[in-house]
Amino acid sequence: MAKQKVLVAEFDTPAEILAAADKLREAGYRSFDAHTPFPVHGLEKAMKIPDSRLGWIVLAHGVAGGLGGLALQWYANAVSYQMTIGGKPFFSFQAFVPVTFALTILLAAFGSVFGMFFLNGLPRWSHPLLSHPGFRKFSDDKFFLSVESRDAKFDATRTHALLEQIGGKRVAMLEAK
Amino acid sequence: MSLPNVMPETLVVPPEAAHEELVSGNRSFHDITELVSEVTERKSDLAWYVSLALALSVLGVLGGSVLYLIWAGIGIWGLSQPVGWGWDITNFVFWVGIGHAGTLISAILFLFRQKWRTSINRFAEAMTLFAVACALIFPGIHVGRIWMVYFMAPLPNQMGMWPNFRSPLLWDVFAVGTYATVSLLFWYVGLIPDLATLRDRATTKLRSFAYGVLSLGWRGSMRHWMNYERAYMILAGISTPLVLSVHTIVSFDFATSVIPGWHTTIFPPYFVAGAIFSGFAMVVTLMVLARQLYGMKDLVTINHLEKMNKIILLTGTLVGYAYGMEFFIAWYSGSEYEQYAFINRAFGPYAWAYWTMITCNVLTPQFFWFKRFRRSIPVMFVLSIVVNIGMWFERFVIIVTSLHRDYLPSSWGYFMPSMWDILIFVGSFGLFFTLFLLFIRFLPMIAISEVKGVMPQANPHHGHEHDVPLAAAEAR
Amino acid sequence: MSHRHDGNEPHDHMHHDPKSDGVAERDPALLPVEENGKIYWRSADHVAGTSEFHEFVTREFPQGADELLDPVSRRSFISLMGASVAFAGLGTACVRRPVEKIIPYAKRPEDLLPGLPQYYATTFNVSGMVTGLVVESNDGRPTKIEGNKLHPASAGATGSLEQGAVLSLYDPDRTVRVLKGGAESEWPAFDADWNERFVALRAKGGEGLLVVHEATRSPAHAAMIAQLAEALPKATIVEWDPVSGEQTLAATRLAYGQALEPVYRLERADSIVAVDADLLGSSPFHLRYGRDWASRRHPEGPGGMNRVWAVEPVFTVTGGAADHRLRIRAGEAGTFLRALAAELQQRGVSLPAGVAAASDAFPAAFVQTLAKELAGKRGRSVIAVGTHQPAEVQAIALALNEALGNVGETVRFAAAPHAPSKSQVEGIAAAAKALDAGKVDTLVILGGNPAFDAPADLGFGAAMAKAKHRIHLAEAPNETSLLADWVLPQTHFLEEWGDATALDGTYSVVQPLIQPIWDGRSKVELLSQLAGAPKKGYEIVHGHFLATQGGEAEWRKALHDGVHGGAQLVEASFQAGAVSAAAAKVARPAAASADSLDLVFTVDHKVFDGRFSNNGWLQELPDSMSKLTWSNAAMLSPATAKALGLETNQMVRIEQGGRSLDAGVWVQPGLADNTVAIALGYGRKHAGRVGTGRGFDAYGLRATDSLWMASGAKLSRIAGTALLPTTQDHQSMEGRPLVREQTAKEYAANPTYAQTLVKGPRSLALWKSHEYVGQQWGMSIDLNSCIGCNGCMIACQAENNIPVVGPEQVRMGRQMHWIRIDRYFASSTDDPSDLSEPEVVHQPVSCVQCEDAPCENVCPVAATVHSKDGGLNDMIYNRCIGTRYCSNNCPYKVRRFNFFDWHQEGEGALTDVSQLRFNPDVTVRTRGVMEKCTYCVQRINVAKRDTKLRGSEIVPDGAIVPACAQACPTEAIVFGDINDPNSRVSKSKAQPRSYEMLGELGTKPRTSYLARIRNPNPEMVS
Q1: How many CB atoms lie under 10 A from the CB of residue C441?
Q2: Among residues B329, C22, C93, C627, which one has the fewest Cβ atoms lying within 10 Å of its Cβ?
Q3: With 0-12 CB in 10 A as exposed, 13-18 as middle and 19+ as buried, what is C830?
Q4: Residue C45: pLDDT band by 50, 70, 90 thresholds?
């Protein structure tokens, strides 16, 4: 495919970028993104971002952790090597609860963190945006909108104009190397 | 008692508190960035180097003592028949307890929409990790054959042996191990956006590379934020039962035994309350120092500290209640062994330890009934230290006084710590403070993006007529 | 050992080739342990490579040589094992082997099977104590000592001294070579030296020769003494033994005109009166007496229970077992007996005139009730007096026994051919005088340690130096050896030929289990040499047997059985007149007070007269009453301590008769007031690595006129504390139902009372327990028979390779005994804190093998689990990581932890010789590992194996005997299959007085206890 291009525009406040995002959407843009120092309330609606699927990943991991943990203890103490300990049954499940619980939590936590990385495509140490000197302020106090060339309505000049019209400053075109 | 039920009364911010400025001094986003990042960027002062040198030398004591311990055997400790556990497990429980505040603040207060947590949670989480690191030393070195400690792991081996999953000690391994891992992930996830900030401000190649790698190429994308916040909430969700379970399971070490003074059903809630108690006290101690040294009084306001003190008061009182309840149950049980154990605790050879514990843990927090003391830096600094002394003694009292006189009077004894018991305990503080000094030097000690998120101007509708104060929080 | 039967090829067992390669340049200290390995080799003849190895290390790095030889280096260990096999006759043809015939006692194999132990009969013969033994030998190493069922003094039991003998055999501090003036020498050098001296002496008929020997009950020894006296008629031969029973012989000479040994039949006695007599604890027959006494302690047994009345100044084992106990001053024993006589006379018992004398010194109720009981039990009582009491006092007791018709019934007499003609004290005193006057040219001391234990007023040590030639035959160099110019290695009894007669005259053989490790000679061998006709021990003993006992066939049987002939009892006619005269002289001593105390010397149950000081097992054994280890102490009653303002562990100076001693105070309930008691045998200055400097030297206070008791002693507090190591700090049972007891009367009324004594709620299991099918092991311990003699503790230590930890570690509570004897004092009055008249209970506690064991649940690595077959609580040493959680969670606190590597460090440190003692069937535990009793699982498995070999599956009842049960003189410990209703243990557990200690915790212990039943005289119970 053609070289990936990104148009990026800078805003000063959460209010401005929220308004701008609304306008972009109304203008029919879909694959555009906002880059903010902290999550701005309302943007997700303005951008029509679907609800996160992370929950399901975590659930799967949690269930695996729990069942796996119980299975491990059952196999180790009741199947592989039966030892009479304290006169208790080989499979004394009451005693196996804490470890089962701990492993459930552990895998769920892995699921949520690494699941999030997976969904966000992180780590990604090189990205056109990061090569734009002005963009680095996103992590301080500036707010950015970026429109990608793969968006159906993308057009270098018209989108550029639109961004400036909705209040974007220092609109720039970035190209993936 | 279980924590969530009592949280609301104390923690849900009262109406007037809602308007309390969580960030005073009318700061801008950039100011926050400056304020926090600057600490990690400027040349650190002599005080820091001195403290680090001090901490490192104490850490050296730990290293040396542990090496000698492994060389000579745990006979160098004061342990005996019948006191098989002394300072080793006392220190373990002590540190694990302290390690509760961080995750508690990050998770439970988060779920309860306590916005005030934002400026202290990073700090508290770091403290948690370092405390747990200290705690993990002791189960490792307290065994007689340290080189065989891997037997505890469920690894297939030539003996065809598996660990005994009925042993509370093994539960500990899993519970504390999980807790350490999850806390670390939680802490790191929170750090990512701020690491990006440091990366973007980096002036040297090294910093930009280091922070660049650590921040995983974070670029604040709104789509990323959505998954990020979901992940953070889920972590908070699963950490809440976890943080409550850890000290519950640690308390099982004692509660599931047959030893009078250990065999008590009240232990889990009682230990959890005690853990929060000591953890919060430790946070206050360190917060007071840090905000003083690094001029963060605007971010960590007296309101934050007062709220911490309220929790210290609550949990301290809960612990006091538990002490009383133990005696009642001992009497009510009708078991003469139980009864003797507690009478011996209060009036036996270790009475001095018991009354130290009562004074530090039950009496001192009562000062916090008065707003004056709650908001007085020197008072809270001293009290928070006293509280942790008391909590160390609580673990000592529970472990040693129960063991030294159990069922058969013929086998009663008395425990005296040896030089090595003391050196290793002192040394563990060396590890704690070394890690801590490195943390405040190289990482943002306050969650920059979170603080920005709770500032008034973070609300897109800011400037329009004021709507729900917790809006920003609700967005999560 | 079949080869031992193949004839008598001539062979000299005494003269070894004197090559001493690489030894000469070594440090010639008296305790040259470094060379142990080396010298040891030569007696076994060239074990491959050893001497080269030694040369190598000594030349390459002289310093390193010691390290290489001394600790358990693999090389030295392997070569040592080689040598011990060589002893067993398995070595190469060139191995020097004993040619004498030794016949296995019980399991005589066709040929030696490596790994299979063999058992030989021999005899323990230490200063009047004669116990028949059966010794287990593993590949030529004696490793475990048991009692000989056929021997009257043992009846299959052993005491702690017998059990400890194995450790003494392998003591690295023994005399490992001939020493001349402290420098290394060899036997031929001594032989040459002696031969010329002998010629000189014989010229003067032996004048100027002084021979000092220990008391012994060996006929062969007596014969050799006689032979020596014949050869050198002018020689002076004296017998000296610091703890001899010669007063008893004097008493019988007085009362019967001849030296006799009273022998009691306690199984026939309904009433036993022990006046300062520790029949069950320390008399030469204590094992047998324990057995007989216990046979009458079963409330349901035939003949009913006996009753023991103890009247004594110090708390003895017998006093602990007594039903009535009266504290009297040591000097009042005679007064008491006369008072008792007076009461008996009033009850129609006719006594010789002058014996009876009423006294108000004792509670009337006690004396009267006792007298009434005795008067009603003629011929069925025993009145015994301690062998250390004056002859007159003992004579009074004999008179009472005569009057009550006990003589011939419960009291009989055995001949005492070994009795020396003149008194030992006079003998040693005369000897000291002669030495001091320079009349002695040659002094020969056979064993013993007179420089240390002779009466202090004789100054024997100093006088000894005045003899021109001083020869000391010593098992281990001691204080006396330091003053001798010739120190000769003496054989341990497990290395030598000998014989002995038991208290009742039964003859038994001492036969060697191993070739003399240090090329030593026995006393009889040296005696024969002194007499100018050197013979081997075997020739002497065998010859003497043939001359006096019987023929070759009897000899072989005697070797096999260990005993020959029966008791040599004699009838004797009582000489009332003499006794009347003597008794009349027995007066009540002047009153004692806090500033004029009675001083009483006691014989220690562990180090005895001091000869066992270097034995770690015995040193660490807690005393039956004080639970003191590693030391003696100045014992005071609580009241006296209070009056003097003294407390346990304070240092005091004891002053008496111009002599003084600094010692630590121990407050001991049950002691007579205004009495300070101190055990002999401690405070050795030159005992070896273990024994030197332990405790306080009571001999320093002991004079010819106060051998056992003295009055007018003063105590003054001096600076310092003693930190006396004890294994039990807390003396009270805190009202807990641990040891449960009743009187016989109460028991008859309410037999199941013991089972009802459960405090607090009973815990129940939440789950269905496992089925324990097949043979399941259990134990029942009868607290009514246990006298707390410690036999089981040291038997367990020997059987299970249990290390010694040393006094400092004992103080920290780190002793390792797998079975301990808990001792609690209880007040006999209403005030529980008043221990002036204490009652004592003993409770042996080892792992009770809980079915629902708390220790198993908490071990993270499953290092302690339950065995399905047998249902034991197993320890898996190589799995243990040492969390100590199991020990914390053990309600019985029977688990022991290796805080250090005890076998490498401290008092228990091994040398290449001392490691030979190990029982090969039991793992030697390392540092950081938990250990505990397993019912001697190694013995269980051997029994199972043998059963299988016999094609059976069920191990017969009694085939398995744990070490503790085997040693127990009173048969208090019963072990067996609890699933078999007919086994002894099941029957014992079925008794109504059987109970589980702490059973309410739901631990389901396999060891249960039988409640103690006291049998007081109903008239004494108010």
Answers
A1: 16
A2: C93
A3: exposed
A4: very low
Of the candidates C768, C857, C1004, the beta carbon closest to that of A85 is on C857
Mean pLDDT of C519-535: 94
Stretch among B108-112, B274-278, C47-51, C110-114 having the lowest mean pLDDT: C47-51
SS (H, E, C) chain A: CCCCEEEEEEECCHHHHHHHHHHHHHCCCCCEEEECCCCCCCHHHHCCCCCCCHHHHHHHHHHHHHHHHHHHHHHHHHHHCCCEECCECCCCHHHHHHHHHHHHHHHHHHHHHHHHHHHHCCCCCCCHHHHCHHHHHHHCCCEEEEEECCCCCCCHHHHHHHHHHCCCEEEEEEECC
Output the six-digit token pair for C459: 């100054």
Structure confidence at residue B448 (pLDDT): 85
**Joined tokens for residue C1020:** 């004494």
C783 contacts on B by Cβ (under 8 Å): none
Q: Is C893 left (phi over 0), alpha (psi -120 to 50) or beta?
A: left
Asked whether C791 and C158 are in contact (CB, 8 A), the reply is: yes
C636 within 8 A of C667, measured Cβ to Cβ: yes
Amino acid at the residue C358: A
Work out the minimum CA distance from C730 to partner chain B, whole angstroms.
6
Q: How many CB atoms lie within 10 A of CB C26?
A: 17
CB contact set of A116 (below 8 Å; sequence gap of 6+): A54, A122, B189, B227, B228, B230, B231
The model's confidence at residue C32, banded by pLDDT at 50, 70 and 90, is: very low
As given in the structure block, the two tokens for residue B310 are 């309220």
Q: Give the model confidence (pLDDT) of B56-111 as tens digits.
A: 999 999 999 999 999 999 999 999 989 999 999 999 999 999 988 788 877 887 88
Q: Are C127 and C609 in contact (CB under 8 A)?
A: yes
Helix or strand run (H / E) with residue C676: strand C675-679
pLDDT at A118: 93
> What is the average pLDDT across C122-128?
89
Encoding tokens for residue C890? 């053990």
pLDDT at B475: 39
Q: Is C829 left (phi over 0), alpha (psi -120 to 50) or beta?
A: beta
Nearest to C441 by CA among C481, C422, C464, C469: C469
Q: C878 touching A, CB under 8 A?
A: no
Q: Has residue B354 got a pLDDT over 90?
A: yes
Report the pLDDT value the prediction gives residue C762, as an integer from 0 to 100.
76
What 8-state DSSP symbol labels residue C1001?
G
Task: Please classify residue C590 by burial: count the beta carbons closer than 10 Å to its beta carbon, then call 0-12 exposed, 13-18 middle and 19+ buried.
Answer: exposed
Q: What is the pLDDT of residue C418?
A: 79
Residue C637 pLDDT grade (very low, low, confident, very high; cuts 50, 70, 90): very high
Q: Which of residues 739-798 of C touch A (CB under 8 A)?
A: 765-770
CB proximity list for C229: less than 8 A, separation 6 or greater: C235, C237
Tokens of B161: 């042996």
Buried b (16+ CB within 10 A) or exposed e, B335-362: bbbbbbbbebbeebebeebbebbbebbb
Contact A85 C768 (CB under 8 A): no
Token pair 């407050």 is at which residue?
C667
Separation CA A29–CA A22 (nearest Å): 10
What was the pLDDT predicted at B104?
81
- Give tens-digit pLDDT for C55-85: 433 333 333 333 333 434 444 444 444 444 4
Sort C51 into a burial class: Cβ within 10 Å, 0-12 / 13-18 / 19+. Answer: middle
Residue numbers in C near B254 (CB within 8 A): none
| Closest chain C C-alpha to A10 CA, distance in angstroms | 60
Distances in whole angstroms, Cα of residue C119 to Cα of each of B296, C221, C559, C562, C937: 85, 26, 12, 11, 20
Q: Report yes or no: B418 at the C interface, CB cutoff 8 Å.
A: no
